[in-house]
Specification:
Number of strands: 15
Helix content: 10-25%
Radius of gyration: 21 Å
Number of helices: 2
Distance between the termini: 38 Å
Oligomer: single chain
Amino acid sequence: MFSKLKKGLLMGATFAFVATAGIGLSGCGDTPQNAKIDAQDFYAMAAISSVNYLQVNSSLSQSLLTTANDTQNTTQTSATRPDGISSDDVTNLSNYMGMFQGMLSADGNNFFTNSTVAETDEYYGEYNLKMTLSVPQANGQTQQLVMYYNEINTETKEELDDDEVELEINSTLSGIIVLNGEPYSAVTGEREYEKEGNETEIEIKLTTRSLENNLDYIVIEHEKEDEEVEYQYSIYQGGTLINETSVEFENEQRQKVLELEFLNNTETDREKVKYEITQDSTNENKFNVKVKAVNNESTVRDSFTITITDTGYTFTYSNNFTETV
């Protein structure tokens, strides 16, 4: 279990689809209902973003290689990508745009449903729970993911201290994600819920592992303490940690904002960079990007746009250079 009450890993975030509810005990193992709601929202977000990443990663790598070659061949006759933005930056931005594309395109309501799995199910009867996610794509079609899983309470503690109830519930999760009817990735996780008086904390750690190559996987950590919500992504390729990213995703007044703070293991001597990605007010598939220094968010180092198309992500930079990956 990761550390309790850890501070400062990420900044506060409010997902549009994260539901809020009053504290109340349900009839299923005395698990607080709001903890279940928050966990289900997180499972849905994690399933979408991790599967999207695993899907787009290999094709993006090849696309970036082709783009880099094309750029090198035309440096004398055309503009190039600004010096402050590297191929790694473009790779990361493309990966995370792919990961969150479903949520950026969704209206934030009713994009997943929960149900139980019949024991007679020929393929997935070993699991108890089923989450079905319908994710709209930029091309107008819908992609369907189904997560079959078991979640088991492993420990429950309840104490009375100075007339305040202290409650701790730990559980584990194991399952499989099915994409378009075919098994795609394995998923494991652990969840901890703590309540002390009026203060609550929920911690969830979920790992999604490619069935094609189990050394490619994503670990997503989520912590919610009262109204503070935190997310961190750790991405592994071939069993090696290649990227850690802090994530904020907000939906305020119909404007969607995605903030990413990268730390590349391959470039540990580079300064961290924060990207603020805001959905355009007139085109839901166009996003305005500001490059900010982490130690001074008021300083915008560069700006450009990313447009989602049927063929990929088109980057248009301040010097009018354009590339699609």
